[in-house]
Amino acid sequence: MISLKNQIILITGASSGIGTACARIFAHEGAKLILAARRLERLQQLADTLAKEFNIEIHSLQLDVRDRIAVESAISTLPAAWSNIDILINNAGLSRGLDKLHEGDFQNWEEMIDTNIKGLLYLTRYVVPGMVSRGGGHVVNIGSIAGHQTYPGGNVYCGTKAAVKAISEGLKQDLLGTPVRVTSVDPGMVETEFSDVRFHGDTERANKVYQGVTPLTADDVADVIFFCVTRSPHVNINEVILMPVDQASATLVNRRT
Questions:
Q1: Could you say which of 13, 93, 117, 248 would form a disulfide bridge with 19 (CB–CB 3.0 to 4.6 Å)?
Q2: How far is CA 3 from CA 6, 26, 33, 38, 230, in A?
Q3: Which CATH superfamily hosts domain 8-185+218-241?
Q4: Mean pLDDT, to the nearest integer, of 232-252?
Q5: What per-residue confidence (pLDDT) applies to 226?
């Protein structure tokens, strides 16, 4: 098992959900964390809490991954002590709405495509060359069951996660011959802010998504990511699909009412 002590780990979307859970599990192992998110206040609170609890070094980045120039600037201006990123967790992502495609909201489409696909591409493009030149590294992309199975109203979101699946596979092929590893972790139902964001803050509607079901937690997903990044250097976990026991497919869910 690889030790994460003093490894530099960049996590996007770190201010909530799976990103925060990853930050905590890696902090426990003594990693050096670069935490990136749009919400600086929440990010700083998390950084202060983890630094105090685990006595680790943390570098915070207020960053919107949709902004390519901002991503380029953030990576190129990292202090020397933080520039050699060992692990990149492309976690920033979101879903907006459940409209039929022919009734879809253009702004929702743009936000999902720009965050889930282009943001992931920008980080990968600016971070991976350093991994290749240093002869080591690991990229973990957070996909979804939605990238494997489309569901009604999921059209564009499912399309973005199918893109993450294809990009992960393509990146692994492009890195053949280097020691850099690529993993896609694709969860089913996870109770985070995901549904709240999808329904634009309609908490009542969001809560119904998980009604009668025991969903995955952010910690469950972070635990799987931790497993993937700590395998022996010659082992690459290409893809992991994980779902709660109450879920058998993107649409088949057992609800106890």
A1: 13
A2: 9, 10, 14, 29, 7
A3: NAD(P)-binding Rossmann-like Domain (3.40.50.720)
A4: 97
A5: 98
Tokens encoding 235: 């082992």
Q: What is the mean pLDDT of residues 155-184?
A: 98
Which H helix or E strand runs over 186?
strand 181-187
- Band (204; pLDDT cuts 50, 70, 90): confident
Give the pLDDT of residue 201. 81
Note if 157 is an active site residue.
yes
Please state, in angstroms and rounded to a whole number, the distance separating the CA atoms of residues 45 and 14.
Answer: 11
Torsion sign over Cα 77, 80, 81, 84: positive
Question: Rounded to two decimals, what is the model's pTM?
Answer: 0.96
How far is residue 78 from each of residues 12, 36, 52, 114, 186, measured CA to CA in Å?
15, 12, 22, 23, 29
Sort 181 into a burial class: Cβ within 10 Å, 0-12 / 13-18 / 19+.
buried
Which is the catalytic residue, given 122, 151, 157, 210?
A: 157
For 178-189, what is the mean pLDDT?
A: 98
What single string gives the DSSP state of each residue in 128-179?
A: HHHHHHHT--EEEEE--GGGTS--TT-HHHHHHHHHHHHHHHHHHHHTBTBS
Q: Give the burial class of 3: count Cβ atoms within 10 A of its Cβ; 0-12 exposed, 13-18 middle, 19 or more buried.
A: exposed
Q: What is the CA radius of gyration of the chain?
A: 18
Token pair 């939605």 in the structure block, residue: 146
Question: 136-149: buried (b, 16+ CB within 10 Å) or exposed (e) per residue?
Answer: bbbbbbbbbbbbbb
Lowest-pLDDT range of 43-52, 160-169, 209-218: 209-218
Give the span between the Cα atoms of 228 and 89, in whole angstroms.
12
d(CA 250, CA 207): 17
